[in-house]
């Protein structure tokens, strides 16, 4: 056996299911690595940090707003004793099922004091910053402490996992998808279940980590479960003898983890799937949001080498650049797979990443923005329960994570190769990584809150049990300002409608929707804002508007200034409700009880 073969055989044992790695103390390298990841995260979020309560993320203003809602809900739970799983101050009178939304309770509840005293915008910026830097450092810790990688390999692999284009893309508004620091520890605990004596202890620890992840991001947990499932099956087929020795304790540990997590999360999950405000499916077909095959070798818009128009052609939104490895990045991922191919564990890892990548392509292959008509395997499972709740392109976040793992192991393995090969590999890594350095997230100035809100003048007009109705009404895309004002005030006042996930038209249609079911008034005001015309209202129209205001328990209607077609919106309100009052910088209409 050659020296390289011996090294590969030894590495295969470690890589397959790593055994205990010698404990080592905190080092100066650890400190500088943590500070480096934190500094890079601050750099990415710096434009939001300048004025976190006054600015909004330009890449996805709507999702930035919905997470302000999640943070405001947690603040009410902690400081007002509000219901943990329901929020009744948005979408009045029906409320919102918080378990059926990405409520990030595991993050938002501990940070409720920050939200209360400094504002939800500060908390959002903090979560994104700690999410990016924390995810990178969590992978560094697992790579260096538990998987035995050298510091350089651990840093590079972790930097990829924490700041890959997919992660930076989701930082444009998805607080949940940048907070992945629990996932590497779940991976590590799953791998450890093969060790003797780990069935109960390891199973309980794994179960607790699963519960924690449920209250951060269930979607990422589903992706990880599918990935580990493919990995386990692939590895078992390649290492049958070893599998026969460990399968009982491995599956036993998984059973203990399932019982632990099920006992602790059973009731919240029941609320999520069967409680008031629950829904089934997404408001779009699986073929809408899929990964474009050409995006694998392109650059994301937030990468140093990114070109916006190209990325927009290949991606569904600024928060869904889920691949975008760049040409050299894609080549180096393939090179890493070749280098590691003799390891069954690394083959299984690569297979898992490829399977999830194929799933992300959706039911029909898309290339450079065009549907090719070529059917893909995902069509067979697109309507399977739970799978039908996922945005398909996000499956591509798995190969982005797998790429970081492969790069970390390849950097260590390349040390056994000749000097010329090592030199070429280093050049390739530089060409791959430098163009992917992230740029600061773009921001916009949010519509400032008027004195009517900031000075609390609204309290004179909105008694307990009534609502403050902003026009445009809080809604996805068209009414983001009204919802933002309410959430930055931690729902001191209640408001109807909003941007959240709920049933489209209960009880007749429980398909998932991004908004409350439209009523006459909401549809009318939406049309006025979009098209700029003010219709002549009849007495019947006015009565329907008043009936809707009564349904929403409205006490006062506030017209948001500087909005689209605001003159037409004002004319419609004057026609329906009469002349307004000018109070605290905004025009308002009182609504009789």
TrEMBL record:
Annotated keywords: Membrane, Transmembrane, Transmembrane helix
Transmembrane segments: 32-50, 124-143, 198-216, 222-238, 250-270, 324-341, 348-369, 389-411
The protein's name: Glycosyl transferase
Organism the protein comes from: Actinoplanes italicus
């Amino acid at each position: 056996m050659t020296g390289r073969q011996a090294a590969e055989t030894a590495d295969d044992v470690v890589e397959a299911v790593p055994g205990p790695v010698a404990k080592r103390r905190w080092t100066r390298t650890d400190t500088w690595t943590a500070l480096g990841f934190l500094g890079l995260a601050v750099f990415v979020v710096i434009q939001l940090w300048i004025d976190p309560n006054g600015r909004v993320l330009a890449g996805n203003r709507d999702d930035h707003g919905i997470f302000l809602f999640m943070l405001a809900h947690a603040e009410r739970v902690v400081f007002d004793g509000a219901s943990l799983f329901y929020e009744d101050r948005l979408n009045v009178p029906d409320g919102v099922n918080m378990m059926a939304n990405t409520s990030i309770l595991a993050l938002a509840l501990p940070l409720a004091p920050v939200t209360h005293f400094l504002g939800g915008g500060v908390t959002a910026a903090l979560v994104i910053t700690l999410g990016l830097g924390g995810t990178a450092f969590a992978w560094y810790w697992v790579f260096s402490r538990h998987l035995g990688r050298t510091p350089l390999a651990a840093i590079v692999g972790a930097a990829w996992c924490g700041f890959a284009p997919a992660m930076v893309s989701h930082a444009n508004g998805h607080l949940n998808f940048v907070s992945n620091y629990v996932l590497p520890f779940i991976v590590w605990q799953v791998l450890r279940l093969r060790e003797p004596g780990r069935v109960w202890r390891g199973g309980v620890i794994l179960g607790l980590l699963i519960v924690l992840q449920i209250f951060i991001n269930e979607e990422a947990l589903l992706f990880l479960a599918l990935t580990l499932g493919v990995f386990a099956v692939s590895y078992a087929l390649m290492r049958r003898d070893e599998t026969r020795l460990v399968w009982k304790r491995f599956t036993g540990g998984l059973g203990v983890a399932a019982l632990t997590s099920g006992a602790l999360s059973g009731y919240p999950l029941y609320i999520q799937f069967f409680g008031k405000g629950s829904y089934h499916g997404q408001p779009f077909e699986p073929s809408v949001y899929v990964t474009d095959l050409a995006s694998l070798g392109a650059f994301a818009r937030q990468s140093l080498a990114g070109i916006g128009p190209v990325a927009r052609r290949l991606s569904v939104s600024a928060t869904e650049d889920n691949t975008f490895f760049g040409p050299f990045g894609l080549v180096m991922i393939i090179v890493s797979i070749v280098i590691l191919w003799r390891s069954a564990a690394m083959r299984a890892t690569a297979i898992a990443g490829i399977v999830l990548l194929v799933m992300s392509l959706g039911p029909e292959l898309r290339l450079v923005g065009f549907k090719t008509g070529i059917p893909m395997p995902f069509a067979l499972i697109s309507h399977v329960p739970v799978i039908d709740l996922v945005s398909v392109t996000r499956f591509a976040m798995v190969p982005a994570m797998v790429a970081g793992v492969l790069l970390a192991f390849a950097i260590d393995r390349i040390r056994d190769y000749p000097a010329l090969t090592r030199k070429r590999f280093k050049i390739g890594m530089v060409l791959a990584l430098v163009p992917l350095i992230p740029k600061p997230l773009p921001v916009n100035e949010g519509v400032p809150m008027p004195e009517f809100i900031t000075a609390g003048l609204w309290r004179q007009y909105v008694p307990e049990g009534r609502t403050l109705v902003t026009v445009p009404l809080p809604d996805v895309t068209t009414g983001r300002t009204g919802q933002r004002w309410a959430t930055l005030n931690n729902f001191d006042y209640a408001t109807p409608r909003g941007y959240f996930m709920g049933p489209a038209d209960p009880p007749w249609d429980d398909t998932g929707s991004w908004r409350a079911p439209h009523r006459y008034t909401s549809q009318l005001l939406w049309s006025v804002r979009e098209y700029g015309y003010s219709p002549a209202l009849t007495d019947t129209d006015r009565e329907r508007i008043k009936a809707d205001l009564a349904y929403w328990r409205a006490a006062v209607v506030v017209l948001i200034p500087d909005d689209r077609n605001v003159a037409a919106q004002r004319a419609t309100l004057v026609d329906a409700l009469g002349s307004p009052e000018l109070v605290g910088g905004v025009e308002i209409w009182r609504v009789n009880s």
